[in-house]
Write a structure and sequence with these properties.
The structure is a single chain. The chain is an alpha/beta fold and about 250 residues long. The protein has one domain (about 1-250): Purple Acid Phosphatase, chain A, domain 2, CATH 3.60.21. It is about 30% helix and about 15% strand. The protein has nine helices and eleven strands. The strands form four sheets. A four-stranded mixed sheet has the order 3-4-8-9, covered by helices on one side. α3 packs across α5 and α6 crosses α8. The relative contact order is 0.14. The mean pLDDT is about 95. Bound molecules: manganese (II) ion. Manganese (II) ion binds near residues 22, 52, 105 and 212. It comes from Brumicola pallidula DSM 14239 = ACAM 615. This is bis(5'-nucleosyl)-tetraphosphatase (symmetrical).
């Protein structure tokens, strides 16, 4: 990551870096990564939360257990772990880094505008930082409901927002599908990638930036739909996109 930032001439004193989430797990330096990003300071760094980040927060509350493959031991055992978790809990599920730009870990649910997604992300943040934090985290894990409805309430409402913004890849008839992780060309016919659904904010040329879907390898065939997870943990590349110049930077694993 530091090599990639250097190649883009990222200046930690004047520039701002946004991350698309899943800051931790799989790689050997989760602790170092979190500390580096936190130390950039609020004016120079922000991130959306990914499914692995939420999983880590749940783990810190004793709700789930670490998997050895995630190599999280040095982070979990470090004296700053609590402080780093508190910092992660202040992060949103969706951000607007610039006019007509939207970031979330998984993407934009086809029935939502970016404005709606940002407001639903605030509802989750309220739960994540409030007195009901434990109850929220405990009820976060499930694959239902699969279709959004404005009348959803409570844990089901928040769970749908979490699933749509941090786990979505394919849908079938507006319903989230969680099993399929492959490239769209290899997926069953009835499944459609979220970004191919008609969504007014996609048509209005908003730029949607996301991570999560490594097997896409950045291929959305749409210059305004920017997939940044290019499989670094699988030995491929890490990708950085400059909002101002629309330039891509890449670092081989
Ligand atoms: Mn993810």
């Amino acid at each position: 990551m530091r090599k990639l930032l250097k190649s883009a001439r990222f200046d930690a004193k004047t520039d701002k870096l946004w991350a698309v989430g899943d800051l931790i797990a799989r790689g050997p330096q989760s602790l170092e990564t979190l500390k580096y990003l936190k130390d950039l300071g609020t004016p120079h760094f922000d991130t959306v939360l990914g499914n692995h980040d939420l999983h880590l927060i749940a783990m810190a509350h004793g709700i789930s257990t670490p998997k050895p493959v995630d190599k999280l031991d040095p982070l979990i055992k470090h004296k700053s772990f609590g402080e780093l978790i508190d910092w992660l809990c202040t992060k949103k599920l969706a951000l607007k880094p610039a006019k007509d730009h939207f970031i979330s870990h998984a993407g934009l649910y086809p029935m939502w505008s970016t404005k709606k997604a940002l407001s639903l992300s605030d509802e989750v943040s309220e739960a994540l930082m409030g007195g009901e934090q434990f109850q929220f985290l405990k009820n976060m894990y499930a694959n239902y409901p699969t279709v959004w409805n404005d009348n959803l309430e409570g844990h089901e409402r928040l769970r749908f927002v979490v699933n749509a913004l941090t786990r979505m890849r394919f849908l079938s008839d507006n319903a989230l599908e969680f099993k399929t992780k492959c490239h769209p060309e290899l997926a069953p016919k009835e499944l459609t990638p979220w970004y191919l659904y008609p969504n007014s904010d996609v048509k209005q040329n908003k730029t949607l930036i996301f991570g999560h879907w490594a097997s896409l390898m950045g291929e959305t065939n749409n210059q305004k739909v920017i997939a940044l997870d290019t499989g670094f943990v699988w030995g491929k590349t890490m990708t950085l996109y400059c909002i101002e110049t629309k330039q891509f930077f890449s670092q081989q694993a």
